Amino acid sequence: RLRALYTASAGAFLLRWLLLGGLIGALAGTASAGFLVALDGVTRWREAHAWAPALLPAAGLLIGLAYHYFGQVAGRGNNLILDEIHRPSRAIPLRLLPLVLGGTLLTHLVGGSAGREGTAVQMGGALADQLPRWLRLTAADRRLLLIAGMSAGFASVFGTPLAGAVFGLEVLWLGSVRYDAVLPSFLAAAVADAVTRAWGVGHTAYPVLGALPLTPTLLGGALLVGALCGLAARGFIGLTHAVGRVYARFIAYPPLRPVVGGAVVALLMWGLGTTRYSGLGIPVILEAFQHPLPPAVWAWKLVFTALTLGCGFRGGEVTPLFFMGAALGSALAAVLPLPVALLAAMGFVGVFAGAANTPLACTLMGLELFGGQAGICLGLTCVVAYGFSGHRGIYGAQVVGQAKHPHRQPEEGQRLNEL
Amino acid sequence: RLRALYTASAGAFLLRWLLLGGLIGALAGTASAGFLVALDGVTRWREAHAWAPALLPAAGLLIGLAYHYFGQVAGRGNNLILDEIHRPSRAIPLRLLPLVLGGTLLTHLVGGSAGREGTAVQMGGALADQLPRWLRLTAADRRLLLIAGMSAGFASVFGTPLAGAVFGLEVLWLGSVRYDAVLPSFLAAAVADAVTRAWGVGHTAYPVLGALPLTPTLLGGALLVGALCGLAARGFIGLTHAVGRVYARFIAYPPLRPVVGGAVVALLMWGLGTTRYSGLGIPVILEAFQHPLPPAVWAWKLVFTALTLGCGFRGGEVTPLFFMGAALGSALAAVLPLPVALLAAMGFVGVFAGAANTPLACTLMGLELFGGQAGICLGLTCVVAYGFSGHRGIYGAQVVGQAKHPHRQPEEGQRLNEL
């Protein structure tokens, strides 16, 4: 009798989350589709107008004012959603959605260096948190909804449902995963990705890697790239924080920070005479798989992204991290006897794995984007990058679940930005 | 300065585990290669001698005597290794290796229905636990070594390094994963798989699935197959335990149990007039991907495996679980409008995911064996099967990390076989 009850409760849970997960998936998938189309339009416009970066200070002012006067908590971005999952306090305002969407599009329009996963994840989380107002849901349901919303946003913006599903579970804690939200996350991610595709929105196709036997050279290469990716991730996090601190110290009025920050980015771009570090940088990412890039490329992307996001522009960190990683891996092809596409793919997933502390989601992303043949190499890179990035991350509200090294166990249970 | 120290410690950890993980990988990979070659020979011999099952009682006596008089704790198999990871008490005896190897080969020689992952995992664990005798290692190192040894054994016996790496991490706890062993597991799994392949030992090639858009039919199919897989897993675990209890109750002298159990299996085989449920059953698994199998096939494999393993024969559960799942999915192709190969693949990974409570490892296995195109379908099946299998599993020493449902939270921290 108990067993029948248990099966019935598992069945009820499945049907309930088929509905709720399907609903969030449809909402987040539609939001991502709209976002991707708009982002594409904005990027084309920028590429056609070389003077667009001259608008960086003006766009910065707009974003700064909007977040300062209408944003309230919204300025905390992804961390707001993570905090609500760990320590629920109040509903996530729907106004987060237009703010982050508008802010991201404006950032990309004028050539800031930023990504898109933050936007999609925040839209997914904000949409998911509207459901408890309309449906009768418990606090436990709300928690699962928020996690599923993050998964749905991530899955649909990159076209990688498995990576998205696992990302939502893995990003909450550094060093551990819990499975309470596994079914909601998988369902929401699967539906969101299908909905984005059903709207006719496609994703960048990356080269599929061939099978390679794991030789000592390949193993050593994967570990070396992983270690460098972890250090690059740490450098990026450190520089972004430093930029934020400097602006906060010298400019008291927050809306002015992205104005000055935008001017700095624009001047640097003008000084270098290139706009290749603007926006997502997909063309350069694809170039990284074709031939070795100069080592300066990844370093400049790091600097541009830290300068853009550190002063208050909006967007995600992930695509710039893909860029840095792919360019870093590609640069190593000049010295390592390994295929450039493989090295670029390792870097692509590795820097992100180290920066977000999500090695399994990044491994799955590697399998979904580059095919299964090089899976274990990509997995090794992600795991080593995770080991080398320390107790730091692009999401300050991530909580240490299991310390990376025994001597840091006292930090378990603390948020990364409290350390 | 602290940062430099931290990087140095991450580097030292990497180099240390490159050595240790490489060593376990080489040992476990070599053991798996020898095991696979021997298993292949034994299976050929049995297929050429239709009367082999007549030897089941005699083989049962040999295995029963060996485990009773020389085995000591070895009879606990995988659970011994899991217990040593959770609550270390004494070194795992090297004699576990010849016992489980001989017992498994004998079981397969005479046509018992059994698998191979248990053997590989136990060999990996037993070999790993020899290293602390020769090298100076701490208790924390030993724990990581045992986990890495399990990962290495699993990875090399199936040729799926990512699934193996994650299996070692995921099998310890039901409902949660911790990352302390993530680097040792990935390294050992990668090296073990490469070493097995370097010995020239190949693995079964399964059909690569094509891309399918996620339609409501496909989503519903994946969820339905998942639910049935979870229930089938629960049925298998229940029946295996019941068989064990019946033999323990009516036959006081343990070595006699596999004698009687062997006779029962042989008689049932003779009554059905088929040996297709003997051994791993790879040919039937491959058949399941080609055309729908009758529904009786998966049920008989369940019964034969429970009867074989419940009375004391040796081997793993996993390949029979693949068989049950693939046959179950294949049978559903008669009623569901989905490709038979896709349904068979869903069942293949689903029953195992439910029975071992390892949905992520099984999803990765699906990606490694069947290609990345159907990844999210396989993932959904695994996650739903996990949800439907309850707090039960083929590894009784698995500890509940996070309950599958809130009302079972009091069970967190308990071993499955204590519930």
Task: Please name the defining characteristics of this protein.
two-stranded parallel sheet; mainly alpha; 17 helices; homodimer; 67% helix; 2 domains; Clc chloride channel
Q: If you had to describe this structure to a student in words, what would you say it looks like?
A:
Two copies of one chain form a homodimer. Chain A has 419 residues and is mostly helical. The first copy, chain A, folds into two domains: 197 residues, Clc chloride channel (Orthogonal Bundle), CATH 1.10.3080; 203 residues, Clc chloride channel (Orthogonal Bundle). Chain A is 67% helix and 2% strand. The first copy, chain A, is built from 17 helices and three strands. Chain A has a two-stranded parallel ribbon. In chain A, α8 packs antiparallel against α16, α10 crosses α15 and α10 crosses α17. Chain A is globular, with a radius of gyration of 21 Å. The mean pLDDT of chain A is 93. At the A-B interface, α1, α8, β2, α9 and α10 of A face α1, α8, β2, α9 and α10 of B.
